[in-house]
Amino acid sequence: MNIIFLGPPGAGKGTQAQIVCHRLGIVQISTGDMLRAAIAAKTETGLKAKTFMDAGQLVPDDVVIDIVRERVTAKDCENGFILDGFPRTVEQARALDGIAAIDAVINLDVADEALVSRLSGRRVCPVCGAPYHVDRLGGETRCSVDGTPLIQRDDDKPETVRNRLTVYHQKTAPLIDYYQGKGTLRAIDGSVGPEAVSEAILRALEANR
Ligand code: AP5
């Protein structure tokens, strides 16, 4: 199955993509993680992306579309993938139509007020990208997967979070109508606990088969 996870920053796309990929045996493709890896490696793409990401703006469409085009044709994507954070504009969605067939689009719905608190308390593993929240870490400071010390993302500062939410409403929210029109959109309440969200997603995907 080829799936898109749509939703505002902090809606739980990364959290749920890790769980659902594990359950379905498919791969997670996070454009945010790929761009952060490019920045860490100081590649040309990373240098182009950094200014936009630090400001909470979207990286230009052509840069991200090229990254995804190359990634989804890799051998490990043959059984299916979850696109986590792509597409984010109508132009990216149109490009994706020519790259891969999409079976389902999961839209995680969470109110803006809850997103600000989720993002300001988020900690992530800089190696595997696993997201955590300080409220549920119980004082733990390392990744439960690989033991790496957790960090706070640069773009999780309150003023950058507000920019990211504005950009989401202007540029990404129109994709809800785009995929509704194609009949592939499945709306999921992302405001409940992570386990309940996973179960709702898996039920929606099962009904889609
Ligand atoms: P990206 O890394 O994709 O960030 P994002 O979409 O803003 O999403 P986040 O990673 O912030 O949130 P999430 O929905 O994955 O939530 P998470 O599971 O971590 O993109 C970063 C930047 O890269 C963009 O701003 C842009 O510049 C650039 N970029 C990336 N893709 C691009 C594209 N296609 N085009 C152009 N530019 C692009 O959860 C958040 C927190 O909430 C965690 O602490 C988590 O533990 C907690 N949480 C999760 N689920 C729940 C729950 N159910 N209840 C309570 N807490 C929860």
Question: How does this model look, in words?
Answer:
The chain is an alpha/beta fold. The protein has a single domain, classed as Rossmann fold (3-Layer(aba) Sandwich). 50% of the residues lie in helices and 14% in strands. It contains ten helices and seven strands. It has a five-stranded parallel beta sheet, with helices on both faces. The protein has a two-stranded antiparallel ribbon with strand order 5-6. A hairpin with a 6-residue loop joins strand 5 (122-124) and strand 6 (131-133). Helix 1 (13-24) crosses helix 10 (194-208), helix 4 (61-72) packs parallel to helix 5 and helix 6 (112-120) crosses helix 8. The radius of gyration is 16 Å and the shape is globular. The N and C termini lie close together (9 Å). The model has no long low-confidence stretch (mean pLDDT 95).
What's the multimeric state?
A: single chain
* Mean model confidence by pLDDT: 95
Helix content: 40-55%
Question: What does the radius of gyration come to?
Answer: 16 Å
Span between termini:
9 Å
CATH class: Alpha Beta
CATH architecture label name: 3-Layer(aba) Sandwich
Q: What structural class should be given to the helix and strand makeup?
A: alpha/beta
CATH-defined fold name: Rossmann fold
Task: Compute the number of strand runs.
Answer: 7
- Helical region count? 10
User: Largest sheet at a glance?
Assistant: 5 strands, parallel
